[in-house]
Design goal:
Layout: H1 2-34, H2 36-47, H3 57-70, E1 76-80, H4 87-102, E2 107-112, H5 115-129, H6 132-137, E3 143-146, E4 150-153, E5 158-163, E6 175-179, H7 190-204, E7 215-220, H8 228-232, E8 240-243, E9 252-257, E10 260-264, H9 277-286, H10 289-295, E11 314-316, E12 327-333, E13 345-352, E14 358-366, H11 370-384, E15 388-392, H12 396-406, E16 411-414, H13 420-432, E17 436-439, H14 445-454, H15 462-472, H16 481-499
Parallel strand pairs: 1-7, 1-8, 2-5, 2-6, 6-7, 11-17, 12-15, 14-17, 15-16
Antiparallel strand pairs: 3-4, 4-5, 9-10, 12-13, 13-14
Helix pairs in contact: 1-2, 2-4, 3-4, 4-5, 11-12, 13-15
Length: about 500
C-alpha cells in the first residue's frame, strides 16, 4: 500500500506541472512577439553567452527607437552610444532576428568595418534563429539557407553580413544597418574616414530596395567631427538621432516607450550598475579630454579645440521675459559665395539682460546669395526686434548695412580688431564667468555647439564669428528711445503689409 501511494505521487505532480509550464511558455512567447525589450531580455543569453544582462532604461530607449524603424515610422536613424553599452547586440544581432520573426520576407543588410566583425555579429543572429526558444516565439520563421555571411528564410527574407570593402553589387535590402563603420585605430586617418563617408554616399543609398520605405540605421560611437555621423548630421539632414552620453550634461525627460519617460538629471551616469563612477574615473585618467568627449560623451572636438569647454556653457529652459532694460543683438557673418566649399552666412540673436548675461535666442546658418541674405536679415529683424544689427564691414557686408539702414533698421557696420583667435580669447572670459546661456534643446543647437567646441580647428567658423562679434559689442550707455520706436514702427508696418497682401 505504501509503495502504491508513493508511486502515485510523482504522476500527480507531473500531471499538474505540464499545463502550468505550457501556460508560462505561451505567455512568455506572446510577450516577446509584442515587445522588443522583452525579446531582448529572453534571448540575451543566446546573443551574448556568459554575460549577465543588467536591465537599464537606455535598453528600453534603444529598443523603442529601433521599433519605430520596424514599424515604418523612422526611415533614417543614427545611434550614438559609448562602447560596451549593448548597442551592437541589440541593433545588429537581436533586431534583425526580431524583424524577420515578424516578417520572414524582409531583406536586411548589416555592414561593419571588417568582415571578421560582420561574421561575429551574424553568428549571434544565427544562434538566436536556430534555437528552439526563437522557434517557439516566431513559429512562422524558418531557415532555408544558412551560410557564414547570409541567413535566408523559407519565405525569401534574409540577413546579409558584409564589410565596408565587401561585395554589395547585386544585393539589396529593406533595412540596412551600418554598425561600427570604422575601426577606432583608423578614425584619425583622413583618407580612411573619407573612404567610409564616400562608401555611404556612393553605395549604401542605392542598395535600398524601396527608396520611399527603405530604412538605414547607423550604429556607432563618435570618433571625430567629420566621422560618418557628423557628416550625415550636417544641415540639411533628415535623420532621427539617438545620442546618449556617458555622463548627462543637462536635465532631460527622455522617451523610452509609448507614453513612457525617464528623467535623467545632469551628472547622472548612463548605467551606473554596469559602468560606475570608478570606471569613469579610470577612463578619464588614461584618455585625453578630446578622446573621452568623442567616445564617451558623443561630442567630438578637435584635440586643440578646447578654448570653450562644454561645461562652461550654461543652459536655460525659458528665456527671460523681455523688458526695457534688456538689449537684443543680432550679429551677422556674411559669406560671398554659396558653393559647397565656401563658408556659410550666419546670424546669432542674443538677449542681454541687465546683469550682463547673454542668452543665445536663435542661430540661423545657410549658404545664401545676397538677395536671400537681405530677405533673411529683414525677416530675423521682424521676428526678434533687435536693438542693433551687427554686420562685419567686408565685401557684401557693407551693402547689407546700407540696405538695412535704408529700410529703417538699426544696422551697424563692424570692423573687427585683431585675429579671430585673439577675439575669442577675450570673449571666452564670459563663458568662464558663466555669463553665456544656450537653450536646452533647439534644432540648430547641435551644429552650433559642435562648431564652437571645435574652434579654432573646425572646418567652419561662421557661427563662431557671428557669436564673437555679438559678445564683443558694447551696449550703448543709453539706448535711443526714438530709434527703438522707429524699429517697432518698421516691424509693425511689415506685419500690416503682409496681412493686407502687399
Amino acid at each position: 500500500m505504501k509503495k502504491q501511494a508513493h508511486s502515485a505521487k510523482p504522476r500527480i505532480k507531473s500531471h499538474l506541472r505540464l499545463p502550468s509550464e505550457t501556460i508560462i511558455d505561451r505567455a512568455r512567447n506572446e510577450a516577446c512577439r509584442l515587445d522588443f525589450t522583452s525579446f531582448i531580455q529572453v534571448i540575451f543569453h543566446l546573443a551574448s553567452p556568459g554575460r549577465q544582462l543588467l536591465m537599464n532604461w537606455h535598453i528600453q530607449k534603444l529598443a523603442y527607437h529601433l521599433e519605430q524603424v520596424r514599424l515604418g515610422r523612422s526611415k533614417r536613424l543614427i545611434i550614438n552610444l559609448p562602447p560596451r553599452f549593448l548597442k551592437s547586440i541589440i541593433s545588429s544581432i537581436a533586431f534583425p532576428t526580431f524583424v524577420l520573426g515578424h516578417d520572414p520576407t524582409k531583406r536586411i543588410i548589416v555592414v561593419s568595418y571588417g568582415l571578421e566583425l560582420a561574421i561575429k555579429l551574424a553568428n549571434g543572429s544565427r544562434t538566436i534563429m536556430s534555437s528552439d526558444l526563437y522557434k517557439g516565439i516566431f513559429p512562422r520563421t524558418r531557415l532555408a539557407r544558412n551560410t557564414e555571411c547570409e541567413i535566408v528564410t523559407t519565405q525569401g527574407g534574409s540577413r546579409l553580413a558584409t564589410s565596408i570593402d565587401g561585395p554589395l553589387t547585386g544585393f539589396g535590402g529593406d533595412i540596412i544597418i551600418i554598425d561600427d563603420p570604422i575601426k577606432l585605430s583608423d578614425a584619425a586617418s583622413d583618407s580612411k574616414r573619407d573612404h567610409v563617408n564616400e562608401f555611404f554616399k556612393t553605395l549604401i543609398l542605392e542598395r535600398l530596395d524601396d527608396n520611399v520605405n527603405g530604412a538605414i540605421i547607423i550604429v556607432t560611437q563618435r570618433s571625430g567631427p567629420d566621422d560618418l555621423s557628423g557628416t550625415l548630421l550636417k544641415p540639411p539632414n533628415s535623420w532621427d538621432v539617438l545620442t546618449l552620453p556617458l555622463i548627462a550634461e543637462r536635465d532631460e525627460q527622455t522617451l523610452i516607450g509609448e507614453d513612457q519617460y525617464h528623467l535623467r538629471r545632469a551628472g547622472d551616469l548612463l548605467h551606473p550598475a554596469w559602468f560606475p563612477q570608478s570606471a569613469v574615473d579610470e577612463r578619464r585618467a588614461v584618455l585625453d579630454e578630446a578622446t573621452f568627449a568623442a567616445h564617451y560623451q558623443q561630442c567630438p572636438i578637435q584635440p586643440a579645440g578646447m578654448m570653450i569647454k562644454r561645461d562652461g556653457i550654461k543652459r536655460y529652459d525659458h528665456l527671460p521675459i523681455r523688458t526695457k532694460s534688456h538689449f537684443i543683438i543680432q550679429s551677422w557673418d556674411t559669406a560671398i559665395k554659396t558653393d559647397a566649399h565656401n563658408d556659410y552666412s550666419a546670424c546669432v540673436t542674443l538677449l542681454v539682460d541687465d546683469r550682463g548675461n547673454y542668452y543665445v535666442v536663435e542661430v540661423l546658418r545657410d549658404r545664401l546669395l545676397y538677395p536671400q541674405q537681405k530677405a533673411h536679415a529683414i525677416s530675423q529683424a521682424q521676428k526678434h526686434r533687435p536693438d542693433t544689427i551687427l554686420i562685419e564691414e567686408a565685401a557684401l557686408g557693407r551693402t547689407l548695412v546700407k540696405d538695412l539702414k535704408a529700410a529703417g533698421l538699426p544696422a551697424v557696420g563692424i570692423i573687427p580688431e585683431g585675429d579671430k583667435l585673439t577675439r575669442m580669447s577675450i570673449q571666452s572670459e564670459k563663458f568662464a564667468k558663466a555669463q553665456v546661456f544656450f537653450p536646452t534643446s533647439e534644432t540648430w543647437l547641435a551644429n552650433f555647439e559642435a562648431e564652437l567646441l571645435a574652434f579654432p580647428h573646425g572646418r567652419y567658423d561662421d557661427q563662431v564669428d557671428a557669436l564673437i562679434q555679438g559678445l564683443a559689442y558694447k551696449r550703448p550707455a543709453e539706448w535711443n528711445d526714438a530709434a527703438r520706436r522707429g524699429l517697432e514702427n518698421f516691424v509693425t508696418g511689415l506685419w500690416l503689409s503682409q496681412m493686407r497682401g502687399f
